[in-house]
Amino acid sequence: MVFYLDPTPMNNQIEPIEMVRKLSSIVFPSCLFSLAKDEIFPYEYFAYTILEEGIIYLHSIGLPESIIVDFTHPLPHCSPWYINASCSTTIDSAGQPIYFSIFTPLLAPTIFYMFSATVLPILFDDKKFSDFKQNPSSLRGIVQRFIDGVDASAIAYVDQGLAHAIRAGYRHLDLDFSDLQNCGDYFGCLLMHIGYHELGHAYISKFTRNDVPNPINDRALELIADLIATKWLFDRTVMGTPDTDEYRNLRGLNTYADTIMSNSLMSVRSQMALLILSSIAGAQLNSGTPTLAALRLHHTAGKVFQ
Q1: Cβ count within 10 A of residue 9
Q2: Per-position DSSP letters for 23-36, written without gaps between them
Q3: Domain extent at residue 156
Q4: Confidence (pLDDT) at 293
Q5: How many CB atoms lie within 10 A of CB 302?
Q6: E strands, the chain, where?
Q7: Is 86 contained in some domain?
Q8: Is 195 part of a structural domain of the chain?
Q9: How many domains does the chain have?
Q10: Is the pLDDT score of 306 beyond 50?
């Protein structure tokens, strides 16, 4: 499987970092391992994205290089099929961070993947994107198919549990192992956006000490986390584009300028994708009416004392 936006294997490796006594972990629901590889993959890749990017950035800004990615921790006021993610910081008695935790609703990684496989081709495939610009209303039917898949997962979750819910969503959308190759880059871009946003909250925690709920402050912090995520994504996908024949051959492109342009377009289109996904998340909170309110209602767990 090739993910074009991961340049690290292409002669662009980061110097290894030694972190004595720093640990990170992933908490999976055990039932995942009764499923097929492509059904487990969204959880593995979500965790990998968080850890691969997060450890390096936390180290670079002087924060503890310790992250827990937990797919089993329930989020307040979130059903298992809600589109959401959350970050919390565990701090010591002096107010200094010890480690960071990233949480999602149980079905969220599966839903992110189903969205990538069904909706994102219209944005990332040049031919489909050209057709979409000529007929923007075509997006409605594609999004509805994705929503129907989420509904199938939600019904199966209520009736039978998580593993059956994942399989029901895949079957409804006719997803199989081949779709991993077809939408791997799209899924990676989306996860980078979501992961970087949550890691942005971890970064902000270095400078914030007041956790008294305040809607104005909360919206401001969400905006700051988004700006941080956008900067990190730009560094990763555009500034980090390798200037090598190996990478250009992999991409099927001729010049360094071509690869920069291609990666820039993927980054911008992934932001468009996140906007669509956020409006659907808003519909989950707004009786089925799409809204971007989810961007300000998105839950962040804040600080936890240890």
Answers
A1: 13
A2: --EEE--GGGGGS-
A3: 25-305
A4: 53
A5: 15
A6: 25-27, 67-70, 86-91, 97-103, 302-305
A7: yes
A8: yes
A9: 1
A10: no
